[in-house]
Amino acid sequence: MADNSVTLVGNLTDDPELRFTPSGRQVANFTVAVNKRFKNNEGQWEDRLDGFFRCNCWGEMAENVSESLNKGSRIVVTGRLQQRSWEDAEGGKRSAIE
């Protein structure tokens, strides 16, 4: 297993967005909502939103994802984390982990 490997289980917040790079390579972007499951004081299982994770995939997988998954689909995503940094229009520093 790679040093930088994560697995997320959650639901798509929207339909995947398929785009193409200038060279024609496919890329699909989507967001996964992940819940935390725990037992409440009454001993019943309860789900609570734990976070949103922006994901992307490339090539043939991107086309398969965009054709077969829809908003609300329950999915398992395995991949690696990557941090991006940029400067916004006002000169502020921004970053995202995908």
Please render the helix and strand layout as text.
Blueprint: E1 6-12, E2 17-20, E3 26-39, E4 45-58, H1 59-68, E5 74-79, E6 83-87, E7 93-97
Antiparallel strand pairs: 1-3, 1-5, 2-3, 3-4, 6-7
How would you describe this protein?
The protein has 98 residues and is mainly beta. It contains 1 helix and 7 strands. The protein has one helix spanning 59-68, and strands spanning 6-12, 17-20, 26-39, 45-58, 74-79, 83-87, 93-97. Strands 1, 2, 3, 4 and 5 form a 5-stranded antiparallel beta sheet that branches. A two-stranded antiparallel sheet has the order 6-7. A hairpin with a 5-residue loop joins strand 6 and strand 7. The chain is globular. The mean pLDDT is 92.
Q: Secondary-structure element order, as H and E?
A: EEEEHEEE
| Intertermini distance | 19 Å
What share of the residues does DSSP label as strand, in percent? over 45%
In this structure, how is the largest beta sheet organized? 5 strands, antiparallel
Number of continuous helical runs: 1
**Could you tell me the number of beta strands?**
7
**Overall SS class:** mainly beta
Radius of gyration, rounded? 16 Å
